[in-house]
Amino acid sequence: MKNLFAFCFCFLFVSTSLLAQQNLIHALPSKLGLDEAYINQKVDSIMELGIKDQAFPGAQVLVAKNDTVVFHKAYGYHTYDSVQPVALNDLYDLASVTKILGPLPALMKLVDEGKLDLDAPFSNYWPSWKKHKDKKDLTLREILSHQAGLVPYIVFLEKVMRKNGKIKRRFVRDTPSEKFQQQVYGNLFISDRFEAKMNRMIDRSKVSDEKKYVYSGLTFLIYPRLIEQLTGTDYETYLDQNFYQPLGCYTLGYNPSKKNYVNDIVPTENDSVFRKTFVKGWVHDENASLKGGVSGNAGLFGSADDLAKIMMFYENYGAIGDKQIISKEVVKEFGRVQYPDNDNRRGLGFDKPLLDNSERTLEKAYPSPLSSPNSFGHSGFTGTFVWADPDNKLVYIFLSNRVYPSREHRQLYRLNIRTALQDVFYRASSVE
Fold first, then answer.
1. What are the Beta-lactamase-related domain coordinates in residue numbering (predicted)?
2. Contact 395, 63 (CB under 8 A)
């Protein structure tokens, strides 16, 4: 089940240029005071159990301590036919991890620059909400912390599919044209009008009168357009120029099938409803797919190395070497629990530990009960997980395609694999 294991030493070089590449430093766990034998035995055992019980066909784990990668190991295969082993530089569909690696750093920067106010009505920036009494006064702070009362999700796929399973040709065609330019999959192209329809449905969606924690990804579908409006720059270009290139995250991006990466892309689900094939290299999430693969709720692909770079950027509160890309104060604010009195653990966009996490057993904790209250991250539906702990200087990356061949595979959750793996690295510093 195990195949690739790489530790290498290299030097970290950060130029003052925004286009400089950030390389990762690697070292053995023992060099950072961690029990190497304990880590290998525990992680191998958990991963082998996950593959045996079909939590995923393959996966990889990367952990950095004190800005140094101390563990990066791949297990299993891309699929259960055991043909292609997982490689350390494979690209994964990150699903909802996109939220904190795509729109969120841009929103942070805009807040830092005074172009967005967390406590002003969001309708000041998204004017169509001014027409809706239940939305016109909602703030970005409420929205990003999932405290606004927005509905969790809208299944936009229902608008392009007939009850008999056929695709509505007024929305989707099998060849591109002047009015069907956005590619949804290899031979599927969405009407240019459909994004406006999605936005109208979001505008008209109901808002609960009860203000409590309800996870909603709706506004992440519109953040890319908002970011473009506020910056005057194409969303993908803005992310690339301001974050991915400075960090050296050269595989982090949307629609990898359209790019000439040497990296292999791990497949996700056998889509029997819409795309009628195994989805590989195109976003798994249907809503993001209907936006041409570029969305704020899902759509990013990336390698473990690139995720480590951007999570270390967060762990260091917005700094790249000696250059502060986003102010420390803003990153800390986004990573802070916003509504603890409402039993809401969330930060601004970031997920956070359960409010009583340190008092819980490993089985009932989220994430590891040893993670600090100042830690933050996010999980993804496809089986991904990223977490940064500034207090303990620990970054944890888990990548899998647990939705292969079907999203009905839920053993990853039942076995609590991601939390158990993270916990190993906290405990490894105290093992005698």
1. 44-415
2. yes
Q: How many CA atoms lie within 13 A of 31 on its CB side?
A: 15
With contact defined as beta carbons under 8 Å apart, do 186 and 114 qualify? no
- Has residue 169 got a pLDDT over 70? yes
Q: Is the pLDDT of residue 234 over 90?
A: yes
Q: Is the pLDDT of residue 408 over 80?
A: yes
Instruction: Reply yes or no on whether the pLDDT at 10 is more than 90.
Output: no
Q: Kindly tell me the sign of the dihedral angle through the C-alpha atoms of 324, 327, 329, 333.
A: negative
- Confidence category of residue 321, pLDDT binned at 50, 70, 90: confident
| Nearest residue to 304 via CA among 99, 91, 103 | 91
Coil vs helix vs strand at 291? coil
Q: Which positions ≥6 away from 46 have C-beta within 8 Å?
A: 417, 420, 421, 424
242 bridge partner residues: none
Please check the confidence at residue 15 and state whether its pLDDT lies above 70: no
**pLDDT computed for residue 420 by the predictor:** 98
Q: For residue 100, what is the enclosing H or E element?
A: helix 98-101
Looking up tokens 């406006």, which residue turns up?
A: 196
How many beta carbons lie within 10 A of that of residue 260, not counting itself? 5
Q: Are 32 and 70 in contact (CB under 8 A)?
A: yes
* Residues contacting 106, CB < 8 A, separation 6+: 223, 227, 231, 235, 238, 239, 242, 243
Q: How many residues are present in the chain?
A: 432
Distance between alpha carbon 392 and the CA centroid of its chain, in Å? Answer: 22
Structural tokens at position 262: 């040497």
Q: Mapping DSSP to helix (H, G, I), strand (E, B) and coil, where does residue 60 land?
A: strand
On average, the pLDDT of the chain sits at: 93
Q: Are strands 300-302 and 92-93 parallel, antiparallel or unpaired?
A: antiparallel
Q: What is the pTM of this model?
A: 0.94
Q: Are 235 and 293 in contact (CB under 8 A)?
A: no
Structural domains for the chain: 23-429 (3.40.710.10)
- Measure Cα distances from 186 to 266, 349, 355 in Å: 17, 32, 44
Beta bridge partners of 4: 74
Residue with tokens 């606004």: 148
CA distance 20 to 11: 14
> CA-CA distance, 246 to 241, in Å (whole number)?
7
Q: What percentage of the chain has pLDDT greater than the value 70?
A: 94
pLDDT exceeds cutoff 50 at 39: yes
- Tens of pLDDT, residues 332-360: 999 999 999 999 999 999 999 999 999 99
